[in-house]
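Thread: quick sanity check before group meeting

JM: Hey all, I'm pulling together slides for Thursday and realized we never actually wrote out the predicted structure for the chain we discussed last week. Dropping the sequence here so it's in one place. If anyone has concerns about the input, flag it before I start.
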Amino acid sequence: MQKRRKSAQKTVYGMHPLPSEFPLRFYVRWSEGDDTGPHGETVGCHNGLELGYCHEGEGVFSIGGRLFPFGPRAISVVAPMVPHATWSRHGTRSTWSFILTDPARLLFGGPAKNYALFDTTRFAGPQFRSILSAGEYPAIEALILKALEEHDRAAPHYEAAIRACFLALLVELNRLPGTVPTNGVAVRDDLVERLTPALRQIQRDYTRKIAVDRLSALCGMSKSHFRQIFKEAMGKSPYEYLTEYRVAMACLDLKENKKTVESIAWDNGFPTVSCFARKFKAIMGVAPRTWAKAQGE
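JM (edit): ok, ran it. Output follows.
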C-alpha cells in the first residue's frame, strides 16, 4: 500500500484552475467513518477528468446520483462536472489518491478536435461503471499507480512519463462498457452544493427513518422545492437515493460474510428481510444471497 503523499494539494468545491504548462493536480483525501474527515463534508463537482485510487478503507462513493460500494484498490472515474462524494463506513478510515486533469490540454496543449478518445464526457451516464475493481482491470490500476509514483519521485522527464500514462489510460477507459458520446454532462453544481446538508444527513442516519421534511429543513427549502431540486440535481427522488445508499452499505456487509441476511437488512435500515430482498434485487439485479455468493467466487 502506498503511503499518503505529503505534497497533496487540497481541493475545494467548484472550478479548479489547472497549471498552464502541466495541467494536472494531485491530491489525497481521507475520511473517517464518523464523517469528521474532509472528504465526507462536501459534494465535489470538478471541471476536469478525475481519477481516484483507494489505498485503504471501505464505504460508498456517490457519482452523479449513483451509489457504489468501494474497498481497497477501487478505482474511480469521474467525468467533468459530475457531482460526487465519498463516505467511509462507520468506524473505518478510507484514504484515496486523486488526479484531476484535462487530457486534451495535458497531451496537446488545447482542445483535441474530432478526436473521440479525448471526449471525457463519455465516462458518465447510467451504463458506465464509474467505480472499477483493480482485480478486474489491472492495466488501469498499474497506469494510475505509475502516474502517482512518477509524481512523487519527480525524477527527470517525469512529466513526459505521466503524459504517456494518461494516453494509455484514455485508451483503456474508452474500451470500458457503457462508454458512449453524451454531448456533455449538464449538471447544475450550485444545486448539488445546496443539497450537501441533506446528503450528509443521509450518510449519518441511513439506518433510521428519515423524513423529507427534515432533509428539506436542513437545506432551507420547502418540501416541494427540495424534492424538485433533488430530482434535478441527483436524477432521482430523496427516497430512491436513500434506498440506494442503504443497499450500497448492505453490499459491504454481504462481502464480509459475517452476518446473516436478516441482520444485514435490519442494520441497514430495512424494516423486513422481504423489503430488503425486493429493493436489493431491483437495484443490483439479483437477490442478496446470490450477489454475496458471486463475490466469494
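AS: nice. Strands lie at 24-32, 49-56, 59-63, 66-70, 74-78, 84-88, 93-101, 131-133. The longest strand covers residues 24-32.
JM: adding both to the slides.
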